[in-house]
Amino acid sequence: MGDGDCRPLGFLIGLPFALLALILSLVGVVVWIIGTVLSCLCPCCICFAALANFAVGLIKLPVKVIRWFIGNFPC
């Protein structure tokens, strides 16, 4: 079988962790909105842009968690 096959055990074990990551990603959405607004208001402060980039990483976290679990568990 190929490398991109479905691995149900990794998916099932990773679901609770992905749900926790989903909660963090919702926090990331709020932080991203605040960071984007603040960076538009004060473009000279680079830390708000870094905060928005960090929030984007939080938003992508559930997908990264599921992919990590699927990749580490055999069929």
TrEMBL record:
This is Signaling peptide TAXIMIN 2. PANTHER family: SIGNALING PEPTIDE TAXIMIN 2. It comes from the Eukaryota. Keywords: Membrane, Transmembrane, Transmembrane helix. It comes from Cinnamomum micranthum f. kanehirae. The chain crosses the membrane at residues 9-27, 33-59.
